[in-house]
Design brief:
CATH topology of the largest domain in chain B: Peroxisomal Thiolase, Chain A, domain 1
Number of helices of chain B: 12
CATH class of chain A: Mainly Alpha
Oligomer: heterotrimer
Strand order of the largest sheet of chain B: 5-4-6-8-1-9-15-14-10-11
Chains: A mainly alpha (83), B alpha/beta (372), C alpha+beta (193)
CATH architecture of the largest domain in chain B: 3-Layer(aba) Sandwich
Shape of chain B: globular
Strand content of chain B: 15-25%
CATH class of the largest domain in chain B: Alpha Beta
Shape of chain A: globular
Largest sheet of chain A: none
Helix content of chain A: 40-55%
Number of strands of chain A: 0
Radius of gyration of chain A: 12 Å
Number of helices of chain A: 4
Structural class of chain A: mainly alpha
CATH superfamily of chain A: ACP-like
Helix content of chain B: 25-40%
Order of helices and strands of chain B: EHEHEHEHHHEHEHEEEHEHEHHEEEE
Radius of gyration of chain B: 19 Å
Strand content of chain A: under 5%
CATH superfamily of the largest domain in chain B: Thiolase/Chalcone synthase
CATH topology of chain A: Non-ribosomal Peptide Synthetase Peptidyl Carrier Protein, Chain A
Number of strands of chain B: 15
CATH architecture of chain A: Orthogonal Bundle
Structural class of chain B: alpha/beta
Distance between the termini of chain A: 18 Å
Number of domains of chain B: 2
Order of helices and strands of chain A: HHHH
Chain lengths: 83, 372, 193
């Protein structure tokens, strides 16, 4: 399965976005801000997602700002760093 | 309703800095910190922690139970025992109680009410017991509740026991928030990077009678809590709940901001909390009032924090000495406040203590020196 | 002292002001009914799905209570929330403990709910309530005890109304007894029990 499609499903599961479908999430749409209504805890949960599904560990949560900008940026980061 | 005068005293502290309130205070006075790094396998973290060392458990009691009973007995030794037969309320303030039982899946013993029964059964008081579990404001809230019950005549005296230990449960949780600092926490410092956890048991006694106390008690003049109604883990960016709690406490104490001599703040050392407090104090016109945080000495002791830090503040009032904010070198928060960087002698008549916690809760308590 | 409104959500079903409510929702053993209640209430509140079970229970109870009582009649900081239970947050604690036991990375979204007072935070956020909060732990619900605690705050003028009661949950057993009390002499119809 396509990484970005997988990622969208994992996002929905990890962040309890029960009322959202993968097709509602655009690849390049900002994840934070108005779109999905994500908050500071969600930002930390995404770090857990990277560890749980891709075995990637993040040292500083500040790195998250760039990595978690959109599904595209997340997929890029995962391709480059997956263990 | 006629306002009874409610006294507070007989403070005790069992912490990484000592086995009595005076000992912890004296060590803090000399700038000693209880925060040290421990082997990572002990507490699942290599970040500094304020651990009580060389503490001998009571036979057949867990560490948490022993801490509560020891501290309570020390506190009660500071009141005349004739009052033990009067109607007492024991309030235990804790966020996780004896959480070690959870590792062994002993759910019934992991309930803080079990801890409460174990402690009450070993104290020489005619009492009822309850537990306040309200995140990091538990300590102040327990003291406020004790005051409220005595003020309305339901009990004559109250013993408040604040306790929490450092456990894998809490260290791993705070690590998931990236909230723990690599170095001992630096409250209000411009380069602060997070909090340090600590453990402690601390007690105070409240009563409508001042003659129960062997040493002159302080007077509890006001206290309040308020919710930010904003976010469950991040503090309100405008300090909404803390502003309300402080103003309500001032109002109920019949005290003006200008009369506050000193503030013992929550000051965890995280970016957000300390910024929020600076904003709240400024909104309350307290930006020039000397303020400190004690978490650089003891770490954040969670359910014990409100009681421990109020007890140290009471020691400060007894000694007319405000302690510096250990760990803070160069203050830097959203609003400029008057952070104490050195110990300072001052006549302390009226003191404000604040606390904030997960769930958007905030509390403020005001004590006055007993004029008699 | 009687409550102006009461909501019970227990394994036996839902009662609002002593009358069965949403009785078409089937309560199945080993399955929590909260999501069904949320759906039936037709709320558009995505934050609900991030809550733990204790918070869902309290949040839904208040949503039902609001159908009987208009909370805005009280000042935004004049409703005190006073809740009690025996299990604290153990229902969620075991989830966090499991991640430690399994040596997995703990979830901050789970950890934040390992404190029983968070339910009051969720209720405060939803309803913009800035008033007093108090969460206490006792072995069993004693209506007299809770009324005393509530009366103390009303008598001292710290609140004009108390919203709270008993809110206990562990695994598949849950028991919410939610009341709204106020200072008014008339209008209190429901026994706190």
């Amino acid at each position: 399965m396509n990484l970005k499609e997988e990622l969208k499903k994992q996002l929905i599961e990890q962040l309890n976005l029960v009322e959202i479908n993968p097709s509602d999430i655009e690849d390049d749409a900002p994840l934070f801000g108005d779109g999905l209504g994500l908050d500071s805890i969600d930002a930390l949960e995404l770090i857990v997602l990277l560890d749980t599904y891709y075995n990637i560990k993040i040292d500083k949560p500040e790195q998250g700002k760039e990595i978690f900008h959109s599904v595209n940026s997340m997929a890029d980061f995962i391709e480059k760093n997956r263990a | 309703m006629e306002r009874k005068v409610i006294y507070i005293g007989a403070e005790d502290i069992l912490s990484s800095l000592g086995k009595t309130a005076a000992e912890s205070y004296q060590n803090a006075l000399t700038g000693v910190s209880g925060l040290k790094k421990h082997p990572i396998e002990n507490f699942f973290t290599n970040k500094p922690l304020g651990i009580i060392e060389n503490f001998r458990l009571l036979e057949d009691f867990t560490k948490v139970e022993s801490m509560c009973i020891e501290s309570a007995r020390n506190s009660l030794s500071q009141v005349y025992d004739a009052c033990f037969l009067d109607k007492w309320l024991i309030i235990i303030s804790t966020t996780k109680g004896d959480i070690g039982y959870l590792e062994q899946n002993e759910i019934d013993k992991a309930k803080p009410t079990y801890l409460a029964q174990r402690v009450k059964g070993n104290l020489p008081l005619n009492s009822e017991v309850m537990v306040v579990s309200n995140a990091c404001i538990s300590g102040l809230l327990a003291i406020i509740t004790a005051h409220d019950y005595i003020a309305t005549g339901k009990y004559q005296h109250a013993l408040v026991i604040g306790v929490d230990t450092v456990s894998k449960f809490t260290t791993s949780g705070f690590e998931s928030f990236y909230a723990l600092s690599e170095d001992p926490s630096s409250p209000f410092d411009k380069n602060r990077t997070g909090l340090s956890l600590g453990e402690a048991a601390s007690c105070v006694v409240l009563s409508s009678k001042s003659n129960l106390f062997k040493e002159v008690p302080m007077v509890f003049v006001g206290g309040a809590s308020s919710n930010d109604a904003n976010h469950i883990s991040g503090p309100s960016r405008t300090g909404e709940g803390l502003v309300r709690a402080i103003n309500l406490a001032l109002k109920s104490a019949n005290v003006e901001q200008s009369q506050i001599d000193f503030i013992s703040a929550h000051g965890t050392g995280t970016k957000y909390n300390d910024d929020m407090e600076s904003i709240a104090f400024t909104r309350c016109n307290l930006q020039n009032t000397p303020v400190n945080s004690l978490k650089g000495y003891f770490g954040h002791t969670l359910g014990a924090a409100g009681v421990l830090e109020l007890s140290i503040s009471m020691q400060s009032m007894r000694n007319n000495m405000m302690l510096k904010t250990l760990g803070c070198v160069s203050p830097g928060t959203s609003e400029d406040i008057n952070v104490l960087l050195n110990n300072k002698k001052a006549k302390l008549k009226t003191v404000l203590k604040t606390a904030s916690g997960f769930g958007g809760c905030n509390a403020a308590v005001i004590l006055k020196n007993n004029p008699n | 002292m009687k409550a102006k409104a009461s909501v019970y959500i227990t394994n036996q079903g839902i009662t609002v002001n002593n009358k069965p409510f949403f009785s078409d929702i089937v309560f199945v053993d080993n399955e929590l009914p909260f999501n069904k209640i949320y759906k039936q209430l037709d709320l558009n509140y995505p934050k609900y799905h991030k809550m733990d079970n204790l918070s869902k229970l309290g949040f839904l109870g208040v949503e039902l209570l609001k159908r009987e009582i208009d909370l805005s009649q009280y000042g935004e900081d004049r409703i005190a929330q006073i809740f009690q239970n025996s299990y604290s947050s153990l229902d969620t604690d075991i989830v966090h403990q499991k991640s430690i036991n399994d040596k997995k990375m703990p979830s901050p979204a789970v950890f934040v709910y390992t404190l029983p007072n968070i339910v009051m935070g969720e209720i405060a956020i939803r309803n913009k309530l800035y008033g007093e909060n108090l969460f206490t732990l006792v072995d069993k619900f004693s209506p007299q005890n809770w009324l005393e605690l509530s009366n103390v705050q009303l008598a001292l003028g710290k609140a004009d109304a108390i919203m709270g009661g008993w809110i206990d949950i562990f695994e598949n057993n849950f028991n919410l007894r939610l009341f709204l009390l106020d200072n008014s002499r008339e209008g209190g119809l429901f026994e706190v029990k």
